[in-house]
What does this fold into?
Amino acid sequence: GNSVTQMEGPVTLSEEAFLTINCTYTATGYPSLFWYVQYPGEGLQLLLKATKADDKGSNKGFEATYRKETTSFHLEKGSVQVSDSAVYFCALSDSGGGADGLTFGKGTHLIIQP
Amino acid sequence: DVKVTQSSRYLVKRTGEKVFLECVQDMDHENMFWYRQDPGLGLRLIYFSYDVKMKEKGDIPEGYSVSREKKERFSLILESASTNQTSMYLCASSSQSGRNYNEQFFGPGTRLTVL
It folds into this structure.
């Protein structure tokens, strides 16, 4: 079956620090990979995605590269802000059309201190 | 602006009650999903639907049922609520075609407490 493993945290960083949140996956097919973000009191929002090997997804200064050889999709940001404090979920979908549900990691709680 | 709405943000029910959670999307999406979110467990798929009147079990369907009578609406039903169903419930939808065909859009969630 499919699974996603990510560091759980909480991860606490100072403002302007470099961020890496690791994500590795196992999948039976050739999945699409996603990072979702959940701000306090809200639902999940798509942060970025990649649909094939070596694709790089990017948004709001965050980046992640689809690495098929290491089955990884690590999230990075060069300089975090207090407003980046949230829970980040790595997820995969191995069905064309997204007709099946996503498989999520357990989430990483990120806390950025001023 | 795309939107997925859920009928309640907070809900408190008693053990044994029948509970309905409603979800509506305005994006004409074919696929709709119900997840529950629990600390340390992430999101787990309960049920999903890829068409009107169609439903498929997810990873944890026990104790739940769903209804999809119209394309825009997907209801989650707890036939007899139990305390272990206290959780955050998230609805999502996605399209089967187009540029964002495999992206799921989420509602704000319903935090259900069963006493």
User: Anything to note?
Assistant: The two ends of chain A are 41 Å apart (CA to CA). Chain A touches chain B at residues 8, 32, 34, 36, 42-46, 49, 51, 89, 93, 95-102, 104-107 (CB under 8 Å).
